[in-house]
Amino acid sequence: MLQPPKRRRWGGLARQASLEPEGSHEKVKNVVVALSASCCLGCLCRGRVKGLLQRPPEAIASSSLFTCGGCWSRPRVAEDGGRAAESVPAAVPTSADLVTSLCNRLQDEEGDRAETYRELERVLQAEDGRLQSAVLGRAIAAASRDMRAAQGVTEGVRTAASDVLVALARSHFDSVMYELQCHLRALGEISEDFVFVTLGKLASSYALRCVPFVGMTLFAVLTMLSQVGSSRTLRAVCGVLEQWSKAVNTYLRDWEKCPFPRMGQAQFCSSVHPLFCHVVGSWLGCEEEEVKQAVLGAMAAMMGLLLHEEEHREQVWAQLPWLLGQYQQVQDTFRVTKGLSYFLETLGEVKILIPKDKLQAIGTAVHSQLSDETKQHSGDHRSELTYCVLLLARVCPEDTVAFLRSQLGSGSEAARVVSLELLRALVRSAAEGGQRLPLLVQAVRSVLRDPSRKVARAVLRFTKELLSCSVQSCSAWDLVAHVFATFSQASGRLAQGNLSRAEAQEATDLQALCLDILGSVDVSVRGMTKLLWPRLLQYVVPAQYTGTLVPLSQCLRELAERRQRAGDEEGEEEADVVASWERAKLPTPQALLARLLPRLWRPPRAQVSPALSQVLAAAPHAGGGCGVAALRLLQALPGAIHGAVGMVWAVKIPFLLQYLEGKSESCLDSAEWERLLLKFLRTSLETIESQAWTMGLSFELSQQKGSYPRLSREQAFLYKAIGVSLAVCPHVPYVRAEVKKHLLRTNYLEASEREGMICVVGGSAESHFHLALDLVQEFGSSMEERPVSGVFKRLKEYHQGKRAGTHMALMLAYSRIALCAPREQLLARVESDIVRGILQHYRTSCQVLGFTISTKDVQLKLTLVQSVAEVSRAMQGAGGSHRVELSSKRELLGILLGLVKEEPRDCLASPLRQEAFLALGHLSKLKPSLSREENRDLLDQCLQSAMPLPAPEQAEEEGAAAADALRVQQTMAALGELVTALLEEDLTSGWCAEMLHVLEYWLTSAKEWEREKALQACAQLLGAYEERFERTGEKSFELFGSMVGLLAPFVCDSPAASRQRAGACLGHLLRIRGKTLDSGAEEDEVQPLCQRLSAPDAEAQLQASSRLAKIICKYIPEAQATDFISAALDGMLSVRSACAQAAGEWLVTFLEKCGGQLSTKVPEILSIIYIRMPTMQQDTLRRVLLEAVSVLALYHPGAVIDSLLQKQLPMDSSTVELWQVLGRKFFVQQLLRALMEKLERSGNDQPRSSSAEAEADDGQAALEPLKITRAIGEVVSTQQTPEAVQRLLPELLPVLLKQISATLGKEMPFSQVSTRGKLFLKGHTSDDNPCRLSLETLEVVLRTSLEEKWLRLLRKQGAWAALEDPRAHHDGVCLLTGVLLRAGTVSLPVVLVLTQWLEAPSSNLRVMAAAFFAELMKDPAAQARRCLQPVLGALVEKARDPSSTVRQMAARGLGNAVSGAPEKLRKRKGAVLAALRRGLEDASAEVVAESLLALAKVVDELRGKAVGSAFKDIARATRAFFDAEQASLRSAAFTLYGVLAAAATRRWRPFFARELGSTWASLVLHLRDPDAGAATACQGALRLCAPLLELRRVRQGIAVGTRLSAAELQDAVCSLLAQESREHQQRLYVAARRCFLEGCAELRAAALDVAGVLVEHAGTEWLPGPEATLLAAALRALRGDGDARVQQAAARLLRDSGLEGAAGAAEPQ
């Protein structure tokens, strides 16, 4: 590190150069250049340059002298940039590591260079450690290079690089200075600007460390001054001059802190002086603003430095006008002031006097700057200007004060204000010396009468500053008095009331400043006690100083306490102080107490105007208010009031202070505080025990009440204090005179004076009851007896209100006397004198000219109400409510209720309503007691008056006064007291329930404000009942459930107040419920939740409501469950959706928490919900109801199902919805099984013991199974997925099929349905047919469990219609079974169940089972599943069933066995064939037809050989049905016949051929069968029989005519017969004739057509003669047949045959 030089300085080199001959200057320059290039400044600093001057510059540059060990050198940087010298990085990066990293970033040109430099600067400033040489060299080199770069580097980068060098100088000052000196080319080109800038920064930051380089640096700068060209360089050079000059000045002031020997000031001044001369000569005329600023700073710094040498002072003083003139030249005058203050600071350090002309110039310049209002100086600038004046005062105090005093006489207001402010600034410095304070005070006294408000304010600020210093050496009382005078003047101006807003604000500010001065007085300052005590007491009593009473009281208390502690040890008072005491008018003790008493009571306000002068003077609460201040003043002045009160006040006043402690205005009970103060006054007077003193106080109180504004609380308190003083005063004549004086002199048109008189009279009655009452009666009587001349004068007095005011005052005086009277004296006269007097004055006030009118005077009504309330309270306090009856109670009640009814219900014009409620409450407590009905009516009327009132918020929105809004709240509070009083009349749960019932009407109001007030009243009632519950003696609370249900919805009402009050009501209910339980209730959790109800977020409200429900619902007794549910359901009908939602949530929560205990209540609960459902159609409400039923069903599914099944058919929408919700919410399989079990039981419970009884049914279906069936359908319809229903399908199918069977052909049981239901059923086709209802349920089940294609197939086949039709029911069952089989839903359990039905007593069941199995026999898969194993034998047995339909289905099933169970069929072919053959003999055509078809299938399966001998019987039996009337029989017979023909084996072919010989004609004939099916079957049979015909050509014709229709085939056969065999032709004709003569109508027409075909092909010649005649006769007869088709066929044949004209017609045989 460079050691500071100890002997020679750079300045020595300069002096050496100056001593050389003139020609040697160039050599010195060369030496400096060489030194700059060789960089051995250490030698220069050690004075080793002298020898170098003898050597040439080249030798200097190459000399080894500069490598000596005592010289420091620039750190060298390695060729690789220094990176090779870097050490291995440590685990935790050090500052060196960070610097290295940042240098690498700079070298690699990564990122923003300016930001990198700023980061490097932060690292260097955070660490004090030294860097390694290589790292330091890299950092300095990089920063120096960027700082000096002329191009390619921004201004920001150069600035940042400069700052880095300054930061490096903190630990490496020598290295940085070396770098800068190297670039400060003293004798070469001018250096870069930032070299100068950085040098200036170094001098500013490290002033003392720069001192060794001052001469060198300044000399180098001197050599370059002539080369400065640009303004930028000039500013940089000026910066160097300014900072290095200040650095030298710092050294001269603090040279002791430097480690090197002291250097002389002359040495420094000699270095600066040439520079100063150059700047004065060359640069003072610069015009550029920035240059001016730079030159100004440099000049001020050099002027301050040159002051140290006397030889240069003249030059400095010569430049002072230039410096002051810069105020007019430069724009930023703050720089001028900074330079001036620096110059003056240096001047003070040098300790030389300022010439008077220079002081005058400096003072004038500074003063003009401060007082010039056109110049907007900043706060810092004004502070600097003031500091300049303080610096002047330090050097020349008397001259400075004299200058300022001269400015106070200036005509400029601003100049005077500035002078006073400067004098105030001088007070503190003057107080330190103490000798100049009188000069300052004397100067300010000269402007005390200045009319300017600004000057007055400045004087007050001076006074405040003065009073904070020692005032012992100056008489400052005039300034203290001036504070009070200024306050009084400002108060007077404000009292006039004609000021503008600005003027009023100015006066208010003056008042505040005065109070601030008095409040900041420090009595501990030396001389303050002598100055102020006791002269301040004279300002306590006068009214104009009322506003100063708070700080005044505090100051006086502190003075009194200080004098008591000091014991007057401060020495004798000065003469002027004693004289001022004598001139002071000190108040009397009574006046002082009378002044302080109202101050103890008056609450604070925010204004200090005289119109509200009591504002600051009355703050009874703690925290420095007037009450506290006045109390403490009294505590300090007991001797000044009266010697007897010392002991009493020592106890009472601390108690009063303790009462005020911690209380603010808002929480202070004004009435209680007033009572304590009046008690304090009474105790004090009783302690004094001086009649004269008490009378004097009464006089002072009377005198001072006029000093307060009317209607002020101070004045009202003084009236009460007068009443107390009269009560204490034992001198009765004086009391009589005073009371009478107040009665007579009161202006009864003024409310304040009336109230004052009442207070005086009432107060005196405490000790003089009879006297006060007699005086009031006497005055009232005299008023009535006083003659009033003329009617017009009476009317005038009436309209002016004088008479009314007097009557009202006397009414209140009576009631106040009752309140204040001794209890033992009151009862004797309350009824006869007080109540009577009140009513008399009221009635008199309602009369005009002797006539009673309905008064509209609200004040008169209020007076009566207040009087009644006060008398009632007085009687209660005296115990009269239990011993004396008020005979006029009902009369008074009637009057009060009449007043309440007259009040408008939409607004609050007066406080009459709430006052009447209070009076009614007090009056109701007196005897005689009212009946419950009377009390109920009273409450109802009061509610009708109070509830419609708008809410306070609404009143304010509608423009109502704030007092009206407050009155609404007061009205509700009064209503609460009335409710409590009425509850006390009959403290039972029954009476409480009646009162709540009265309130319930308003709780359900659609208007928010009515609900809110009703909830408030409800909370008040429940709170009162809770407090008194133990007194009722009741063990249970029957209202809990219903009230919780009623109030719960309101926890989510719109107004936050309603929610809070609903929560309060629930809290009361829970606590009452807890008192009936041994374990109590969870009251602690309810309060926080009720507070959360006030949250504006609806979600937060619902969460709090939900939590409340979970807590409270647990305590609802089972017996009150239905009450709660009914109330909650009613709450869901609220117009407010949030309330309805809350009610529903409470209902569901209750059922979730307590549903398990409500098994006996399920039917009743469901009935309640069911009744409400039609009125709750909104989706949200319906969901809640359905959720409630679902929750109940989870606990009691059986009970819920039973209850729902009690509903009558047809099901209404509510019942349907309930079943559906159970299907959605409940476990559907469990629910359906339960319903199926009930359906099974209902069927089994029918009283049928035999099939005969079953068939002898009355034709009506059972009702309960229908309900269950419908319920199943509704439950299933809700299923979104088929899985659950599919799992139950094996159980559901048999149950529903059985129900279908049971209802088939039945009617609805109208005898069990209501009349309304019957009318409904007759109009609804889906419900008037029980079978259809069951089918719909089955369809719903199948729709849920099957794919849609199967349902479409059922509809396409007409299965549902067939199932409903009793005649086609079996076919419908077959269709249904077929689809179920194809869908794969028929399982073994279903088969087993239906197998049992085959033996059921009910024919419908047997039919259904037989039809089911008939279709089932088709399915081979059923046989594979072993479903058909027991069925075939059963069908064989059922072929003998009594029911023809069963027999038919049995035959069909046996026939279908060919497809489903051929093996089984073959095994039992004998039984099957026998059964089918019996079927051919059945009486039922359907059974015969089915048997024929079944035989066709069986024979076809078994073939002829397997049929055996039955083949003949079957063939013979079959031909009998060819001509049957039923087409189905003919078709089936032809089908079977064809099968027989095909199945005839060799054994049976001859037989069948013979049979065919007699049947072929019938086959040909029926080719034209009217039934298409029969004709087709006949055609098929004929083709199958053709090989067995004996006619070859016919056989061949049939074989080749495969594409011919039946009619065409018949034509072809007839044609062949005509050609081949007339015999066979005749056989066919015979068969046709027999048919058209004997057959049915359809066959007769077909037979006639066949005969026509024969005639067409063969004519009639082949007919025998008689036969032709018979044919003609038959045809004529048939033309009259009843069938049109027969007529037409007969006529056509008759015409075509040519027989129409044949003779000898004969009747056919």
Radius of gyration: 64 Å
| Overall geometry | elongated
Which percent band covers the strand fraction?
under 5%
Give the helix/strand class.
Answer: mainly alpha
User: How much helical structure, as a percent, in the residues?
Assistant: over 70%
Count of runs of 4 or more consecutive helical residues: 88
Sequence of strands across the biggest β-sheet = 1-2
**Unreliable stretches, pLDDT < 50, 5 or more residues?**
1-91, 568-582, 603-624, 788-792, 1247-1258, 1314-1325, 1702-1709
List keywords for this structure.
1709 residues; mainly alpha; two-stranded antiparallel ribbon; 2 strands; 70% helix; disordered N terminus
Q: What's a concise summary of this model?
A:
With 1709 residues, the protein is mainly alpha-helical.
Structure report:
- The structure is a single chain.
- The chain has 88 helices and 2 strands.
- It has 1709 residues and is an all-alpha fold.
- Strands 1-2 form a two-stranded antiparallel ribbon.
- A hairpin with a 2-residue loop joins strand 1 (847-848) and strand 2.
- Helix 35 (713-728) runs parallel beside helix 37 (751-765), helix 45 packs parallel to helix 48 and helix 54 (1083-1092) runs antiparallel to helix 55.
- The model is unreliable at 1-91, 568-582, 603-624, 788-792, 1247-1258, 1314-1325 and 1702-1709 (pLDDT under 50).
How are the elements arranged and paired?
Blueprint: H1 10-19, H2 25-38, H3 41-45, H4 57-62, H5 95-107, H6 113-126, H7 133-148, H8 155-168, H9 173-183, H10 193-205, H11 207-210, H12 214-224, H13 231-253, H14 265-283, H15 289-306, H16 310-329, H17 333-350, H18 356-371, H19 379-395, H20 397-408, H21 413-433, H22 437-445, H23 453-467, H24 477-496, H25 501-519, H26 528-532, H27 549-566, H28 575-583, H29 589-601, H30 626-636, H31 638-641, H32 646-660, H33 670-688, H34 691-704, H35 713-728, H36 732-745, H37 751-765, H38 769-785, H39 791-800, H40 802-820, H41 823-845, E1 847-848, E2 851-852, H42 858-877, H43 880-883, H44 889-902, H45 912-924, H46 932-946, H47 952-957, H48 962-985, H49 989-1003, H50 1008-1027, H51 1029-1032, H52 1040-1047, H53 1056-1075, H54 1083-1092, H55 1098-1112, H56 1121-1131, H57 1137-1154, H58 1162-1172, H59 1179-1195, H60 1197-1205, H61 1213-1225, H62 1228-1244, H63 1251-1255, H64 1263-1277, H65 1283-1303, H66 1315-1322, H67 1330-1345, H68 1348-1357, H69 1359-1364, H70 1369-1383, H71 1388-1397, H72 1403-1416, H73 1420-1424, H74 1431-1438, H75 1444-1460, H76 1462-1467, H77 1469-1480, H78 1485-1507, ...
Antiparallel strand pairs: 1-2
